[in-house]
Specification:
- The strands form three sheets. A six-stranded mixed beta sheet has the order 1-2-3-8-11-12, with helices on both faces.
- The chain folds into two domains: 52-127 and 231-347, no CATH class; 131-224, no CATH class.
- The protein has helices at 24-30, 34-49, 55-62, 67-85, 131-145, 168-183, 233-244, 267-275, 340-347, and strands at residues 89-92, 106-109, 115-123, 152-160, 193-201, 204-212, 219-224, 254-260, 278-281, 290-293, 309-314, 326-330.
- It is built from nine helices and twelve strands.
- Strand 2 (106-109) and strand 3 (115-123) form a beta hairpin.
- Helix 2 packs across helix 4 (67-85), helix 3 (55-62) packs across helix 4 (67-85) and helix 7 (233-244) crosses helix 8 (267-275).
- It is globular and about 80 Å long.
């Protein structure tokens, strides 16, 4: 029997920001204030309601070192708890009648008897940057931030993200040798650039820029070269497209629940992402303005008709289970159109 519990002995007297090397579970476990107490209790309650046969796998994800695994698990627990609380019945990882070995997250049966498949997915905030690789760099930089040098500080320009965790100790040995060669330059003006050098560790590549001391720590900043941060709609539609055809032809409605990392993602942006961007047109000599949608939405021109609805959440996490904004959007041209009663019941979840 799998149980989720937090060790009260690990709660610290004073809270502090999450360390890069900490898992989300460890961070949640040690922080003392009331907001964390509430989050811990909510997570335990959701976990206890989850089917016993699925708890072991869910517990592994909650305690994973990868924070995306933690957030994904919390999202699925929330969906299960929210829908079951409205009288829906959920079967995790159902077998499909089309012979596919892949299994959606849930087969959901409404109080009315109508059933549909439900798939949960996360949508990140950046289009070109792998969040797992970015987390490895973040952990690497946080270790360097604990170092100190009397004369120099560094700016890191990451040219190539790593496929494995780079060694901070190895880089520190490289930096010390390099700093020794810079001492003889005799530059005393604070903030002056003393030199640049490239460093490689496996497939990890970074350009180091040394300046005369301008901050207390070793690192004065870092960024990923060429990273393209995109509008909120892009990661959402990218996530939807990845899931839309994953299970082949289905025998009932298919709903995708998306948890976007953008807390500001609103209904206008959601409708543009799904149905197409709004555009206005008019003709010279006429007073009427015609407002329509461009064919650039997920469902535009009959695309992705296997997806009956999208349930979109704005940055739901363990601290915002009861406050995260969400909207339910249907596809009237879907292969299987959801019953209006089901739509109304699900749209009311959490309100």
């Amino acid at each position: 029997m799998s149980q989720l519990c937090f060790d009260a002995k690990k709660i610290s007297a004073v809270g502090s920001p999450k360390e890069a090397q900490e898992s989300m579970f460890e961070f949640l476990e040690r922080c003392p204030d009331a907001r964390f107490d509430s989050a811990r209790n909510s997570l335990i309650e959701l976990f206890n309601r989850y089917p016993e046969s699925e708890k072991a796998e869910m517990l592994t994800r909650i305690m994973a070192r990868n924070d995306r695994q933690f957030k994904s698990a919390v999202f699925e627990l929330f969906l299960y708890g929210a829908l079951s609380g409205q009288g829906f019945t959920l079967e995790p990882h159902p077998l499909l009648s089309n012979g596919s070995e892949k299994k959606p997250d849930f087969l959901v049966t409404a109080p009315s008897g109508e059933s549909f498949y439900l798939e949960a997915v996360l949508a990140g905030v950046d289009g070109d940057v792998d969040p797992i690789k970015l987390e490895m760099v973040s952990q690497f930089v946080n270790r360097l931030k604990k170092q100190h040098h009397e004369q120099f500080s560094l700016f890191l320009l990451v040219k190539k993200l790593p496929s494995r965790q780079p060694s901070a100790n190895k880089l520190m040995a490289f930096i010390r040798d390099w700093f020794c060669s810079l001492v003889n330059k005799g530059v005393t003006e604070e903030g002056a650039v003393l030199g640049e050098i490239d460093y490689k560790d496996g497939d990890f590549e970074v350009e180091l820029t040394a300046t005369s001391k301008k901050n207390e720590g070793l690192i004065n900043g870092w960024r990923v070269d060429g990273a393209r941060f995109v509008k909120p709609a892009f990661p959402v539609t990218k996530a939807l497209k990845a899931k839309a055809a994953k299970y082949g032809e289905l025998d009932r409605p298919f709903v995708i629940a998306v948890n976007s990392d953008w807390s500001c993602f609103d209904g206008v942006q959601a409708e543009a992402a799904l149905y197409g961007s709004l555009q206005a047109s008019f003709f010279v000599g006429e007073e009427d303005i015609n407002v329509s949608r461009k064919p650039d939405g997920f469902w535009s021109e009959g695309h992705y008709s296997r997806v009956s609805a999208v349930w979109l959440f704005a940055s739901l996490d363990v601290f915002t289970l009861n406050t995260s904004r969400h909207g339910f959007y249907t596809n009237e041209h879907a292969d299987f159109v959801l019953n209006e009663g089901v739509v109304a019941a699900r749209s009311s979840v959490g309100r």
